[in-house]
Amino acid sequence: MISAFLLVVVLVVGLLHLYLWTRLVRDTTRPGRWRRIGTVLIIALAVLAPATVAATRALPLDSQRLLAWPGYLWLSVMFLAFTVLLVLEIPRLALRPWVRRRKAVVAAEPEPAVVDSPPGVADPSRRLLLARSAAIVAGLTAVGATAVGTRTAMGPPTVVRRQITLRKLPRRMDGFRIAVVSDIHLGPLLGRGHTQRIVDTINRLDADLVTVVGDLVDGSVAELGSAARPLSGLRSRRGSFFVTGNHEYFSGYQEWIPEIESYGLSVLRNERVEIDGLDLAGVNDVTGAQYGDGPDFGLALADRDPAKPVVLMAHQPIQVLDAQHHGVDLQLSGHTHGGQIFPFSYLVRLQQPVIAGYARFGDTQLYVTRGAGFWGPPVRVGAPPDITLIELRSA
């Protein structure tokens, strides 16, 4: 599975770099030294990108850091430059007549005559000007957006406040507050300080309940246990709870589950607990099915009192399609990162029904947080990190 994933990465990255070489090197230079230098640089960057992805799966955490910053930042610049250049293909086509409108000078007596050259002959100077202009726009946009996006991704998560009405919620629980955080993604670029900042933010919210909806780590307990330990400082009136995300399975979920429980969080594995007048349930991530540990809605929700509202923790929004068939009132999810880098959100929509925020599926309500960390490039464009405080209201 991993080798197939890397093969796809190499193929896609190779095609993207071929396009970038065409637009940024071949079209903007004449044959000679600068074109050779540009070609070597593009080849080196094309190797760096998949090497970085492979390193995050094969090398120890300390070694990953050597490639993570340059490799992942280039992935962001690469994707954004490709996106801008793709958009600029439209004006390039529109300006093609201008590029081909070349004047030819024909010798004559007593003065040379200026006539139009045959149609279809491009003016090299105009073609070069257009190509270089597009390259400059794409380069500046990609580098600038990556710089701003890095500051956003590495900065503190914003706090989003949302009221959600549950028809079955007892009036005595009106105003019950749930802190929702997901996709913390501790790894080569995010460590203990990141965890502590998230814990401090949640504790200031004075929530009744804390839910951590998967994808805490990208590495083993030995590598990241100390980075995750500040979670033991989470404070809430009715406890803190966790469900697995897909990255827990990539990182060794058998070790991480007892480790997370040692921090004082209750890991809900296809099970539920009663909290005052509602049921809080949690199901494993869908990726767990590949490890013999998949989601089981029947087990998590069996024999419950249908008069009580049930809030479900499920890492991926797509799980709402099962949740609505089991009478779930509210599902809390993450996974999408809000798209992380625009316009990735359009690609995420091919896999998930909701990218971020609130939606309704029949009688089941869904809320998706954008997550507090990042995966891959330390960049967020159009999708800032967040922690959500949901206030439940009775009907």
UniProtKB/TrEMBL annotation:
Its cofactor is a divalent metal cation. It comes from Planosporangium mesophilum. Residues 176-338 form the Calcineurin-like phosphoesterase domain. InterPro entries: Calcineurin-like_PHP, Metallo-depent_PP-like, Metallophosphoesterase_sf. GO terms for biological process: lipid A biosynthetic process. Keywords: Hydrolase, Membrane, Metal-binding, Transmembrane, Transmembrane helix. One of its GO terms (molecular function) is metal ion binding. Pfam families: Metallophos. The chain crosses the membrane at residues 6-25, 37-59, 71-95. This is Metallophosphatase.
